[in-house]
Write a structure and sequence with these properties.
Elements: E1 2-6, E2 12-15, E3 19-23, E4 41-49, E5 54-60, E6 64-71, E7 73-78, E8 83-87, E9 90-95, E10 100-106, E11 113-120, E12 130-135, E13 146-150, E14 158-159, E15 165-171, E16 176-180, E17 186-194, E18 197-199, E19 202-204, E20 209-213, E21 217-222, E22 226-234
């Protein structure tokens, strides 16, 4: 097994007033040659957007983009004609493909919105752009990891153009489970949204990231009530 630990305090940080963002990997003005990506996982941003503020219309292409709101409501509009709101308990995905333009705003005027912004390199370029969002409430389970994303259109959760699987979990203190890697050669990047956990004995705290590869499974234990995101991704771009 190989592993890399990214403590929360070591992430890149940008405070633009209306946007407070922490970057697990190099992004915008934050550049660390040792933290460019984890396999095909290119961006993991932990964003807080002020009341009624947001990202104006901007382009993307040939990237799989996943947004996971943690608090508040995020207004989305795009060049495909979508106008939606995503909130805590939802998950949004866009395949940017040949090119899209979109905007994201905090719909609320009385509180910030917090969300994870995640980019993955696709395994198929120049596809027709697509959009999807789901509510996780119907598939969420307690004290186990449940699948929220995969490469397969008929599987639970959303799908993307990449051999990646995402799982989330809400755990009570002391809960234990095991994760088995879905595809040989993939690695798993663990991101602790809330609480404290142990992965094969490695202790992780809130907002820590831990990448593991060259393994087929690992053991998980929650040290306190915890919320965790697992991102299994190919290690070769």
């Amino acid at each position: 097994m190989k592993a890399v630990l990214h403590k929360a305090a070591t992430r890149g940080h940008a405070d633009h007033g209306w946007l407070n963002s922490h970057h697990s990997f190099s992004f915008a003005a934050y550049h660390d040659p040792d933290r460019m990506h984890f396999g095909v996982l290119r961006v993991l941003n932990d964003d807080i957007v002020s009341e009624a503020r947001g990202f104006g219309t901007h382009p993307h292409n040939n990237m799989e983009i996943i947004s996971i709101p943690l608090e508040g409501d995020l207004q989305h509009m795009d060049s495909m004609g979508n106008s939606t709101v995503i909130k805590e308990g939802d998950l949004q995905v866009m395949s940017a493909g040949t090119g899209i333009q979109h905007s994201e705003y905090n719909k609320n005027k009385d509180r910030p919105v917090k969300f994870l912004q995640i980019w993955l390199f696709p395994n198929t370029k120049n596809v027709e752009p697509r959009y999807d969002q789901i509510s996780l409430k119907a598939i969420a389970t307690k004290n186990s990891f449940y699948q929220v994303l995969s490469p397969n259109r008929d599987d639970q959760g959303v799908w993307i153009y990449q051999d990646a699987w995402f799982h989330m979990g809400n755990f009570d203190a002391g809960a234990e489970t095991e994760y088995q890697v879905k595809q040989n050669g993939n690695g798993v990047y663990v991101f602790v949204i809330e609480g404290s956990v142990e992965i094969n004995g490695q202790k992780l705290e809130q907002r820590d990231g831990y990448g593991l590869w060259d393994l087929d499974r690992f053991k998980f234990r929650a040290g306190s009530p915890s919320k965790v995101l697992l991102m299994e991704v190919p290690m070769t771009i």
